[in-house]
Amino acid sequence: MKSLLVSATEFEIAPFLSHFGLKSGLNYLNGNQIVVLVTGVGMVATAFSMGNILATDKFDFALNAGIAGSFSTDIELGEVVIVNEDCFSELGAMDGDSFLPIEELGFGKSIFTPLQSGLLEGLYSTHKGVRGITVNCVHGDDMEIASISERLNPAVETMEGAGFFYSCNQAGLPSAQLRSISNYVERRDKSRWNIPLAIEMLNRRLINIYTAI
Hints:
Layout: E1 2-7, H1 10-20, E2 25-29, E3 32-38, H2 43-54, E4 61-70, E5 80-87, E6 92-95, E7 98-101, H3 102-105, E8 111-112, H4 121-126, E9 128-134, H5 142-152, E10 156-158, H6 161-171, E11 175-184, H7 195-212
Parallel strand pairs: 1-3, 1-4, 4-11, 5-9, 9-10
Antiparallel strand pairs: 2-3, 4-10, 5-8, 5-11, 6-7
Helix pairs in contact: 1-7, 2-6
């Protein structure tokens, strides 16, 4: 079996890599091949990196792992969730105070659900499924947070997720996106964040997943 593990930064998956002695690129683990792809932050960097590797290589599934902000305090800091729908939330046009998504303009789509396979059924069945949005600028203004919550009702926000799903869907590749919550989406206050906890819990989960494969 050959899998693709994708993360925006090496920092987010460093404990997992260290635990198994892995590095960026091709690795062998428990008789399986795992390619680690660090894309850089943002949807453009993610889509470019994914396009490059999927044009020349084939995988059984792809897994995107990273941290995220949560719009819902019902999700605890450090909790690992699985994104079952993601959206390019800014892809469209403004008409006064109204936002017109790209679908209404007739130029494409902005919402993506991942392709699934038997290999990923366990992940989807054992993690809380949430709706995500993908942004270029993370939210930190109360009025904007209220507006995007009313329009799309997202649970989590990232800068890469929809780009990852888009790339995998274009290639017909089953995929999953795991996110560990590092902060709540609110007026920016890093003293309320817990990135170390989010990293710890994400990597603990990755280690369990790849130990079982």
